[in-house]
Every structure is written in structure tokens, then in C-alpha cells.
Amino acid sequence: MEEKYAIAVREFENILSENMKPDMWIKLARIISEELSKSRGVVISHGTDTMTYTSSALAFMFEQLSGPVVMVGSQRSSDRPSSDSFGNMEGALAFSSTNIGEVGISMHSGTSDDSISFLRGTRARKMHSTRRDAFKSISSKPIATFRNKNVEYISGYTERANETLLLNKLETRVALVYFYPGLSGVDLEKLSEDKRAIIIMGTGLGHISQALFGSLKKIVSNGTKIIMTTQCLRGTVDLNVYSTGRELKKIGVISAGNMLPEVALTKTMFLLANNEDEDFESLMIKNMRGEILERELLGDVY
Amino acid sequence: MYISHIQSEIKIGLEIHLQLSTGKLFCNCPDMESPALDGTFSRWLFPTGNESGDIDIAALQEEKKHISYNYKISENSCLVEADEEPPHRINRESLKTAMSIAASLNSNIIGTVSVMRKVVVDGSNTSGFQRTAIISTGGELILNDHKIRLTSICLEEDSARRIDPDDGKTTFSLDRLGIPLVEISTAPDIRTFQEAVEVAKEIGLRALLTGNIRRDSDAIRQDVNFSMGYGRVEIKGISKLSLISQALQEEEKRQGSLATAIEIFLKRGGFTEVNLLDFTHRLINSNSKIIQKGISAGNKIFIGKISNMLGLLKQGEFRIGREISDTLKLFSISGFIHSDELPGYGISQEEIDSIRSEMKCKENDAMMIISITEEKRSIAEEAINSRIRKLCSLDFSETRAALEDGTSRFLRPISGSGRMYPETDLPIIKLNDELFKEAISEVPKSFDEAVAIFLKKWEISKQESEIILSSGRKKEFEELSGIWGKPREVSRIMLQFIPEMERKFRKRVKREDIRQIMAGVKRMSYGRVSLEIAIELMISGTDINQIFNSDLIKPLDAEELRLILEDLRRNSELRRENVIAKVKERTRRPIDPKAVMEAYLGDLH
After folding, report:
1. Per-residue b/e over B493-510, b at no fewer than 16 CB within 10 Å?
2. Which residue of B has its CA nearest to A130?
3. B130, B113 in Cβ contact below 8 A?
4. Which of A213, A201, A219, A206 is nearest to A264 (CA)?
5. Tens-of-pLDDT digits for all 302 residues of chain A?
6. Are residues A139 and A161 in the same domain?
7. A282 touching chain B per CB within 8 A
8. Are A160 and A99 in contact (CB under 8 A)?
9. The domain that contains A210 carries what CATH number?
10. Is residue A97 part of a domain?
11. Cα(first)–Cα(last) distance of chain A, in Å?
12. B343: preceding bond cis by omega (within 30 degrees)
């Protein structure tokens, strides 16, 4: 690999990815921005556990990119001969020398070592705790794959821009709440205290128990925004189909559409820090970085 | 001519591997044979530095082969075998069995077991290492008044089984991967080839008494360590006891001839580096099929001069040619033609003379012709030169693979100490008192003692007890007796009826199926005859659920019996002596002779 690419290595933080925090995303974004002014692309090695939180946060913070930002990890540590890190890294370096101007993730396409996928940072999710092919592009295809030493493009992407534009602020007073039968209004209100927004992972089309509506109203009246996502991960939130949804809408709950819950979280953090409050809802439902699928196809990607 | 070596120089040690029938070691998959599923996946392996930073020499050797490995998924494999999930906790029953075997060989069981990773990058382990744990150290075996010391007993996971690649790719099945293996190693105390066989046999028998050894053709495999003064050679994977002695004889012969050949080689002037020169243009019009085939496949034809080697590559007992070609095979180079085989392979004397003169070959110089791609030239040169250099040092130490005919082939250099490092995915296991108690209670003392205890407990014959114990079927017998409740009938069915049916239908029956059939027939409260019919139906290919619903296994009831007797009486002369035979002629279904007799006598009254 050293023969093919000129590589400069820079240490960021040596931590387990579960210990990442939003302020580190900002620090990382600054370093990327700096490096992109000198390099064709940037590869970030990152623990897999919170890699998609980082990838989506970075994706939002970069209004435009002068080169690919490729995150890479491994599901089998590199102290074992069967580690997937070598293949993932080889793919990452190949993706980093393309003309893609997006943040993505370079990990195994399947259990075999013969194909590495480049997944859009705002659609990727870790779907398995141990497998090499844990990372999937939910309800959509990867941007590209690397096989037989070649990058093959699979779906459309944003090309790199002449220069990188970074908006390096994030609002951290945001919470992500998983609804379950029995969730109490008291708990929900406590979680929402001092928050500018909460993202709820509701059931099905985006529902939560009607017993919580009183609490929701209180939360909204305090000025906290409520964004609804779905625990199904695949498919969209739609608050028009059932009466529960319609009532939620009346209360002021904002639908995140088919955005992934964690992505709705980082997007909210980004929007609240960089935009006027009144633009929030319109931007939330606007597809900014490929986080919202305009069409979900009946194909092989479910 | 081959120099005979005095026996006292010979040192032999054994490593005996026994597969356990306790389920896999680090997951919940069964250890049984199972059909392959459709899926295949492929992997690369990369030797990694261990904690001290060395990369093991054997591991490096494999890496030079540049191979991607294919794995066929089997029904008895899960994410653990695919190296897609960390190992589960160690199989307790396997641990106990290893402890029992250790205790029976007076080996000292250690209090805490740490699982280690032994780097193996030949593809036979998806992880690139084999998990192994020392269970005990020391111990001894006394055979014909001679003490053979043991060095250690380990519990490890078996490797994946290589299956014949039809597409030229190295392919393994996951079915054997992860089956527990108990490895018993002896010190090099064995003095003769025959003694090696006896030691292997005795250790195998002790282990079989636990009843937890798999019954399969390669469930017991022996590795032999042999030295006659030229370094330690390890011959791996001898599956039959009878081949141990033969493998040792062949190895003694091989090393003896090699030593003599090298002596001649050195006297003539010894080793000069071999360079492979491109002769493709010169041989483009050759009549040799091998050469033409190579050229049309895109290969080049290289010629190398091996100074002083003429007559030593393949003549009389000298076989240095095979030593070189075995090494080349590791790099997927199928072989070469050398001067001891020429003229031949369609290569004319004229061509040979011309090449020899161009290569400035002297009288004793050999030459080799090899058809490979340009990329493989330097790999081949290095392989050839390093092999000859090693032989010249008269250090023959290496790891070899046993072949069916008693000979062996070069596998890799002897593994270095850099191969082991801790398995960080598993906690250290403390062997608690309870485990010790259970393990010790199952320790087989001697075979005779074990037989005496067994036949008293189950009230079966001595002969049956001996067969069951020496074939390692104790657990199977106990389990089936538990289901069926009549040990004598179980013994008869296991040792006579099933083998008879297996011969009749030329099929092996699965232990799990027998268990199921027995439990089913027992639930219906049918007797032995029904059970035998059910087993026969199963082995002949009838679906198990269909068997349970079949009338064929249902004994005749009183009414059915009465009707048959009535009919028989009308059409034939029925006597007390022939009534059972007559009824049997009328039906394939199970009958109770006592019930027939009662019905017959009852009708008379």
C-alpha cells in the first residue's frame, strides 16, 4: 500500500469508540478540514461501535468537501491473522483517492474478504455485533465497492468540490429516547428537561402511547422540539395514517421521514447550532447529505 | 547405498490426538458429521506479529504461498467457526474428559487453564490460529517395564477439513473445525518403531474408556516426532496405528539416503546458487508436450543448473528431486523435469546437449527445466536454493504430512516459539473442586477393572462389556439404556442388529437417529421386535415420522390375532408346535409369542 499511495499519519485520539463525544466530532472535523487542504482524501480509523454517529455528524458539518472522507474500522482485531482490518484499509485507501466528495464508511460487503463497500455516512448502520459485514446501508445501496483492486460505482454521489466548507458547531442539548410499552410520562419529561430537542424512536409508522400525549404537550410548550423516527429502522415515519399519528402531528411532533434515528439526532444537533429556529422543521425534512431517501425501491436492498 | 543407523541414536516421541464426542469446544454446534450447506466464503490470512514482535517462521512460509482460502459452510457450524463471533465458554464436558484422561495417566492437572492462540495460517483455521489449552503436565505410562514419560496433555480445537478442490482453490469444510481434541504428548522416550505403536495403542485405549471419544475414521490421529541425528522431524496426521511403524521406517530410510546423497554432493564441491534462465525462445519448437503446454498457457520455460547434483535427484535411492519439488508445490508450482529423467518427456538428446553446453554444465552438473510464469521465477529460485542449502547443513528438521502409503511430504519448517499468544476473548478458567470431583470419579483405572465395573452395573456379558468399552461406546450405551430401560436388549441392538442392518443396506446410521427411534418406540410402549422393525425401516430410508405412524411396528392386538388364528384353522392344520411360525407367515407386524400361544390355547378351550 505504501508503494501506491503517499500516506501521512496523524494521531487524533486513542480511545474506544464508545467514549466518543460530540466535542470530539468537532475536533476531528477541524483536523479533517486541515488535512484536506494538503491531501487528496482523508482516512479515519475509528472503532466500529459509534462509527456511524461520527460519520453522520461529520457529514452534516461539512457543507462541502474537497475530497473523500473515509472512515474505516475492523470487526476482528488486527492481532489475528484473519483480521478484516487489512482489507477494509485497502478499500479505504482506494476510496480516498476517488473524486467522491462525501463522508463514508469502508467495511466488508459480505463475510468474504473479496469485497469492501463504501457506505454513505448518513445511511450506514452497524447491524451486527460481531460479523465482518455488520455495516449496512439501510434501504439503499452502497456508493461503491472495491473488489479485484478496482473501485466500482454503484449509486450516485456528490463529487468533490474545489474547497472544503466546515460549519463546526453542534448543539449537544438533544436526547434520543427509545419508546417502549410502559414508558412513563415522568421519565419522558425528565429526559427532556433542558433539552432543545428530543428524538423519539417510536413504533411502526412513528407512534407512542396516547398516555404520553399530556407529557408531550408539556415538553413542546417548554420550547423543546420533538422529532419522531421509527424503531423499524427500515421504512418511513408517517403521521397521517393513524389517528395516533395525526394527534402527534397536532401536538407539534415533527416527522423525520425515513431518516435513521441516530442520523436524526446528529442532524438535529447540527441544525440547532447553525440555523435559525424557525427554519428547523423545513430543514429537518429536507435531504441535505443523502440522509433522506427520496425513493425506497422494492429491490434487493431491504 | 544407504547407511544403516544404530538404533540407540533414534529418538521417538508421540503426539496423540483424540476427537471428543462432547459437541464442539467453543460453541454449541454438534460434533457429528453433517451435510455441507450451499454457502461458501473466502478469506485471506495475514501473519501478525505476536506480542514480542516476531513473526513465526512457519507462518511466514505459508504467507509466501499467496493464497485466498475458500470455506464451505456445514450444517454443524455457526458464526464461531466462520470467525464471525467470539468463542463461547469452553465446553465443560470436554474439559472434564481431558481431566479424566490426564488423571488416568498420572499427569498433574493444573489449577487454572488459560486458552492460547497458536498461529496457523495454512487456512485450516478461519481465525488464523488454533485455540489450545494445557490441562496437565508430566505423567507416565509403563509398558513392558519401560517407562514412557508424558510431557503434557492439552485440549484444543480441531482444524477445518481440507476438501478436494475442483476449481484449483484451496477449500476447507467447516464441519470438523472446532471439534475438541485431546492432545497427549510423550517425551522422546520411545526406543523402537514397534514400541511407538504399542504406546499409541495403550494411550488410545485409556482414552476410549471415558466413552467420550468420537467414532470416526480419523477421530484418532497420531503425530510422530523422530530424530536420528539430523534434527527433529515431525510427521503429522497418521490416522492408523498400523501406519506408525511404516511411517517411521520410511522416514529413517529417507533421512539415511538423503545424508548419503548430501555427502556425495559435498565431496563433489557442494552447492552453488541456482539461477533460472529464460530458455523459452530456444525451446519454442520443441516436440515436448509439457513444454508446448506451458508456453501456450502463458508460462516461460526456465532452465537452472544445479552444480554437482547429477544422479542425486532421482537415481537408485536418491531422491533430492522430490525434496525440491515438494517445496515448490507449496507455492503452487507443480513440478519440474530434471536431468536424471532425461532424455524423456519428449525432450531430445540433441536439445539436452545443446542446453548443457550453453549452460556450461560439467560432468556432474544436473539441470532442471521448469515451466512457470515470469512472476514466479524469483519465488521458485528462492525455494530451490533455500531447500538445497538446508539439506547441505544436514539439519533435516521440519514438519511433514503423513501420506496413505506410509511416506510423507514436506509441509513447513518446524514451528518456532513465536506461535503462541493468549486468547484474549476468553477468561482464565479456574478448575473448581466440583469439576475435579466429577472428573476423578470418571477416571478409568485399567481396562480389566473398567470391564468388571461395567458388566456388574449393567448386567451384560463380559464380552459385550469389552467390546463396548474398547470401542469407546460407553456413553452411547448408557444413554440408550437410559432411554430403552433394558440394557441387554440395547447391547444386542447396538452390537448385532444395527451392524447387520448397516451391512445389509450399506449405510451408516446416525446416533441421533437411533436415539430418536428408541425414544419414539418406547413412548408407544412397544417391545424389542417393534424397535428392530423400526430401525430396519429407518436404515432402509423411511422417514422417521412415517415410521411412528406405520402399522408395521404396531404389535397385533387380540382381535387381529383371533381373526388370523380363525382363518389359519380353516385352511390348515394348526398345532401347538407350528402356531407361532404360521402366524408369522401371515403378517410382517410384530407379534408377542406368548400372546399367540395364549390365544391359541384359549380358543381350544
Report:
1. bbbebbeebeeeeeeebe
2. B85
3. no
4. A201
5. 556 899 999 999 899 999 999 999 999 999 999 999 999 999 999 999 999 999 999 999 999 999 999 999 999 998 888 999 999 999 999 999 999 999 999 999 999 999 999 999 999 999 999 999 999 999 999 999 999 999 999 999 999 999 999 999 999 999 999 999 999 999 999 999 999 999 999 999 999 999 999 999 999 999 999 999 999 999 999 999 999 999 999 999 999 999 999 999 999 999 999 999 999 999 999 999 999 999 888 875 55
6. yes
7. no
8. yes
9. 3.40.50.40
10. yes
11. 35
12. yes
Domain membership flag for residue A37: yes
Does A83 contact B46 at a Cβ distance shorter than 8 Å? yes
**B448 vs B60: CA distance, rounded Å:** 49
- Is A81 within 8 Å of B48 when comparing Cβ atoms? yes
Q: Alpha helices of B359-432 — where are they, by DSSP H?
A: 377-392
Q: Is the minimum CB–CB distance between B59 and chain A shorter than 8 Å?
A: yes
Residue after which a domain boundary falls, among A131, A166, A201: A166
Q: What are the sequence ranges of the domains in chain B?
A: 9-26+35-232, 266-395, 445-553, 558-604
Measured over the CA atoms of residue A256, residue A259, residue A265 and residue A267, the dihedral's sign is negative
Q: Which residues are within 8 A (CB) of A194 and not within 5 positions of it... i.e. 6 or more apart?
A: A173
Kind of pairing, strands B146-157 and B129-137?
Answer: antiparallel
Contact B43 A110 (CB under 8 A): no
C-alpha cell recorded at residue A52:
456511524
Q: What is the CATH number of domain B266-395?
A: 3.30.1360.30
Q: Give the cell for residue A287.
A: 435531504
> Which of A145, A166, A187 marks a domain boundary?
A166
Tell me, yes or no, whether A183 and A214 share the same domain: yes
Name which of A40, A35, A48 is nearest A83 in CA terms: A48
Beta strand spans in B174-232 (E): 180-186, 220-227
The residues, any chain, with a CB within 8 Å of residue A278's CB and separated by 6 or more, are none
Kindly list the distances between the CA atom of residue B334 and the CA atoms of B290, B326, B371, in Å, as whole numbers in the listed order.
12, 9, 9
